[in-house]
Amino acid sequence: MSSPVQFPAGSQPFLEPYLPPKDRKPDDAFFTTVTFATSLDSQLALSPGAPTLLSGPQSMAMTHYLRSRYDAILIGVGTAVADDPSLNCEIEGVGGYGGEGLEAQPRPIIIDPTARWDFTENHKLFQLAKEGKGRAPYIITGLETPPAAQRAILDSYGGKFITLKFIASTDISQHRLDWKDILKALSAEGLKSVMIEGGGDVINSLLVPEHFSIISSVIVTIAPTWLGQGGVVVSPQRRLNDGKPIAAARLDHVAWQQFGEDIVLCGKVKI
Predict the structure, then answer these.
(1) Are 132 and 102 in contact (CB under 8 A)?
(2) Coil, helix or strand at residue 184
C-alpha cells in the first residue's frame, strides 16, 4: 500500500474491546495482542521464508488501523529476513500520511537472539524512517556485543539494540529469550502496548500456559484458502492432563466479523 489507507469508522467498535484503551493511564498494565493472518489450514506461509499474502484489502486496512493503536509492533527475525517488512501504519491521518511527525506510528521490534539479520540502510524499515513514514526498529538480542555495522545503522536512524540474557539451557544450540524479560524491556523504553504479528515460531512460543497471563487479546484474520501441506503452521504444543492430551489453548469473549472475503476472529485466551 503506497497511498494512505482508510478504515471505516463503523468497523472500529467491533475491535475496541480487544485493543489498548484510548484513555490509558500511566499505571495501566502492559497490553499485548497476538495478531496474524492464517489460511483455513492454520498456516501463515507456503513454506519457511516464503512471503505469502493472505489478507484481502479490507482486512489489510484493519491491520493498519490496529497498528495505529499500539506503541510497538513485534516480529521474529525469520519474518524480518524473509519479508523485508515495512511494519509501519499507513492509515490516513497518522504521521507520514497526513499527520504530524510520527504520530501513531508504532515502534518496530525485532526479536533476533543471535543478531543474524544482516540488514542495510536499503531495507524498507530504514527507507520509511528516512521518509518520515515510520520508526527505526529496536532489535532485541542476547548478544552483549552486536555487529558494529548494524549498530551504526540503527543509531543513525534512531533505533537500537537491546541486549537481554538468554534463557539458561543445557542445549547450547537453543538461544531463547524470556517473554517477560522482553515485555519488561519494552516497558522500560516507554512502550506500553505491543501487537505481535509473527512469525510462526514467535506465536507458537507465546501460546503456552506459562504465557497466557501476558496475552491481553488475540485477533486472527482467516482467509478462505488452503495453502496445503508443508507450510508454516500456527499450532502450539498440546497440553497433558493426568497424562491425557487436552487442547493447547482456547479463546473466550469471542467475536467474529467479515471484512471483504476474510473473517476476523477476536478473543481473549482462556486461563
Answers:
(1) yes
(2) helix
Over residues 32-57, the mean pLDDT reads 93
CB-based contact 220:59 (threshold 8 Å): no
Predicted confidence at residue 48, as pLDDT, reads 85
Task: Kindly write down the DSSP assignment for every residue of 112-153, as one continuous string.
Answer: -TT------TTSHHHHHHHTTSS-PPEEEES-SS--HHHHHH
* Of 43, 81, 30, 63, nearest in space to 223 by CA: 43
User: Which among 76, 82, 85, 87 has a CA at the least distance from the CA of 46?
Assistant: 82
What phi and psi values does residue 68 have, to the nearest 5 degrees?
-70, -15
Q: Cα(186)–Cα(91) distance, rounded to whole angstroms?
A: 24
Q: Which three cell numbers stand for residue 104?
A: 501513531
Q: What is the pLDDT of residues 117-157, one digit of tens each?
A: 999 999 999 999 999 999 999 999 999 999 999 999 999 99
Asked if 209 and 84 touch (Cβ cutoff 8 Å), the reply is no
Task: Collapse the DSSP code of 251 into the 3-class scheme (helix H, G, I; strand E, B; otherwise coil) and give the result.
Answer: strand
In Å, what is the CA distance from 106 to each residue of 124, 194, 210? 15, 8, 27
Q: Of the given ranges (20-34, 84-98, 181-195), which has the lowest mean pLDDT?
A: 20-34
d(CA 19, CA 30): 12
- Global pTM value: 0.94
The Cβ-side half-sphere exposure at 192, using a 13 Å CA radius, reads 13
Say if residues 148 and 119 touch (Cβ distance below 8 Å).
no
How many other CB atoms sit within 10 Å of the CB of residue 154?
19
